[in-house]
Amino acid sequence: MSAVDRRAFLTAMAASIAVPAQAKGGDPIVATMAGRLRGTREGGLCVFRGVRYGEDTSRRRFQAPEPVRPWSGARDATAFTPSCPQASAVGAQGEDCLGLNIWTPGIDAAKRPVLLYIHGGAYSNGSVVDPLNYGDRLAAAGDVVVVTVNHRLNALGYLYLARLDPRFADSGNVGQLDLILALQWVRDNIAAFGGDPGKVLVFGQSGGGAKIATMMGMPAAEGLFHRAITMSGQQVTASGPINAGRRTEAFLAKLGVRTNDMSPLLTMPVERLIEALAAEDPILGGGLYMGPVLDMKWLTRHPFWPDANPQSNAIPMMLGNTHDETRAFIDARGPKLAGLSWDNLAARMQPELRIDLLPEWIVAQYRAHFPDWSPERIFYAATTAGRSWPGQVIEAEARAKAKAPTWVYQVDFASPTQPWKGAPHMMDIALAFGTLDAPGSLTGTGQGARAASKAMMDRFIGFARSGDAGWPQYRIDTRSTMIFDAVSRVENDPRGWERELFARAPYIQPGS
């Protein structure tokens, strides 16, 4: 029996011996390839939290993950695994963080579409234990299986040591390899949870979207997912190995570890590794950037440079951004905008731009085109269009040129609870999951928010099911874009003037 045939056989066996929740009347129990899992019944769903897809990574720092080992008996899957150690406050943290969570309408043979979510927080922070990305409402709304995944981040997932020590040949990309292992687990086991392993959609916000864009260029991920949605997260280019090596040197210097002896990294407290991320980034300044590396082993070309990677052009892809991305990063009532005026607008904008155009010229262009706009409105429009939006435009244009199935959306729904933030970065998380009342949501629970959320959830679910977003594909001649709002609609090339303005100079992906 071939490996492929054996995997198909085991998947079918796992599905056939699942204990139906409705038959037992109590906690649902599912047989996976490694052993049985006991979940909970919640609001008509079967929920499995903290499902381990890989072994404890503390014993394999900076190395590729190992699949979870088999166990006997029924293992409880009722609590989240720890989140990857990080500087952010995300609850329990630990290196034994390779866990996923499943919300399913039934452990049966229904073969529902699977929506697997990858969290944001760039490549250094974040977790799916945040109630904003609980999968219960999305699973119930669309009769789909929702999976959320934690994996290694920051130095634990992306520190590049491969050129210094052969033991760490996979380092620089092990965070990505964790996600690939999670997708392999889904392929091999999700049928037992009522899901279809041949209809897996990956979606992720911010850094989660960037991780997806990167996986679309990783041969090891080929065939593991069948649709993709990136939400305010792109990865045009990865970190080059020379720049990644310079960051490693800064990190090791902060720790006092010699480049010819990596052994202390394996035994020192993980807290010290996290503290060392405060070393100054030799390329960007500020704290160290960590992200995927063009290591010529796992990642052999940039994800979307010089074009869209042909490996994934057949995969239907949806790309989205919010209208006011930078209002999430730059407080309208904070020091950066205190005393903002026409006299200092260009100087205040300059540090926030990622496209090297003359700031005074940018201001003049906006003032001529939008004479009634205030300095604050121009500040946020220009920093969004010149910082957070270009990667999405580049990726969508590249796929359109390749005639790849591509759809684009823009979130215009503005926060009614914090109106000075408009439609900021992260606005689309609660809308997509239906978690409008979760802590941290900016949407409120009014009629407009419910309408925008329903429109977004319906489109995501439909896309997972059919591979078609339900509005015209993004093409160079039309640039059709779904605008998610209290009343959603399709527009051709919204913000086209801004797109053309910032296309006059190249975009350099931060960190690369």
TrEMBL record:
KW Oxidoreductase (keyword) present: no
Keywords for this protein: Hydrolase
Keyword flag Hydrolase: yes
Domain Carboxylesterase type B: 27-468
A matching Pfam family: COesterase
SUPFAM superfamilies reported in the protein's UniProt record: alpha/beta-Hydrolases
Gene3D superfamilies associated with the record: alpha/beta hydrolase
InterPro entries: AB_hydrolase_fold, CarbesteraseB, Carboxylesterase_B_AS, TAT_signal
EC number: 3.1.1.-
A GO term, aspect molecular function: hydrolase activity
Top-level taxon: Bacteria
Family indicated by similarity: Belongs to the type-B carboxylesterase/lipase family.
Protein name per the record: Carboxylic ester hydrolase
